[in-house]
C-alpha cells in the first residue's frame, strides 16, 4: 500500500490521498501522546522500597523513631521527612499507611525554631497552602514532654486515631515516619 511508504506527513502528502494523510496524522498524534504521557514514568524510577507519587519517591519506615532521628534517617538516604502540600498527596499517603497498618507517622512539619510558625523542614515552606489539622489542633498540649511543657508539641504527626488528620505532638515520641526524595 502507498500508505506504508508514508514516512513523514510531507512525504505522505505527496504520495497519499487526504484520508491517508489524516490517518498518518492521527497515528503520529497518538504516538506523540503516548511519549508525552509515558516518558516521565520511564525516566522517573524509584529505588527499591520507595513508591512514586508525582515527582517524588516515598518510603514508609517500619522503624519507630523520634522526629529528629527520623529526619536524620531520611537525610541518610538523600531524602527528607515528607512534605504534604495537597489533598491528593494526603489521600495517597493515608491509603499507603492503611495498607501497611501504620496508625501514626511523622511528617516533616515543625514549628520549633520558627517563632511557633508551622513550616515544612527543611524547605521552610509554611503550611498555609494546605493544612489538614484535626479539629482543635494544633493545641500544644502539655503532658508528654518532660523537658519543655511550654512548647510541648512541636512536630507534626499524621495520626490514625484522628482518622489520619494532623496533630502536633511531642517530638520525642517514637513513631513510624515517611521519607521522600525527588524521583530520578
Ligand atoms: Ca496536639
From TrEMBL:
UniProt source species: Candidula unifasciata
Protein's name in the database: C-type lectin domain-containing protein
Domain of life from the UniProt record: Eukaryota
Span of domain C-type lectin: 53-180
PROSITE patterns, per the entry: C_TYPE_LECTIN_1, C_TYPE_LECTIN_2
Listed Pfam families: Lectin_C (PF00059)
Bilayer-spanning residue ranges: none
Keyword Disulfide bond found: yes
Keywords: Disulfide bond
Signal peptide: none
Amino acid at each position: 500500500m502507498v500508505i506504508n511508504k508514508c514516512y513523514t506527513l510531507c512525504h505522505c502528502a505527496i504520495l497519499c490521498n487526504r484520508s491517508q494523510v489524516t490517518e498518518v496524522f492521527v497515528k503520529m498524534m497518538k504516538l506523540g501522546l503516548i511519549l508525552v504521557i509515558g516518558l516521565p514514568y520511564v525516566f522517573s524510577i524509584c529505588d527499591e522500597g520507595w513508591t512514586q507519587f508525582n515527582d517524588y519517591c516515598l518510603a514508609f519506615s517500619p522503624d519507630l523513631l523520634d522526629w529528629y532521628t527520623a529526619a536524620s534517617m531520611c537525610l541518610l538516604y538523600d531524602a527528607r521527612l515528607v512534605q504534604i502540600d495537597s489533598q491528593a498527596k494526603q489521600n495517597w499517603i493515608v491509603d499507603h499507611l492503611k495498607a501497611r497498618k501504620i496508625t501514626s507517622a511523622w511528617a516533616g512539619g515543625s514549628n520549633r525554631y520558627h517563632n511557633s510558625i508551622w513550616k515544612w523542614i527543611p524547605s521552610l515552606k509554611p503550611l498555609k497552602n494546605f493544612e489538614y489539622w484535626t479539629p482543635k489542633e494544633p493545641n500544644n498540649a502539655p503532658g508528654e514532654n518532660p523537658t519543655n511543657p511550654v512548647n510541648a508539641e512541636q512536630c507534626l504527626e499524621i495520626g490514625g486515631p484522628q482518622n489520619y488528620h494532623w496533630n502536633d505532638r511531642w517530638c520525642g515520641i517514637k513513631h513510624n515516619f515517611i521519607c521522600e526524595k525527588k524521583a530520578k
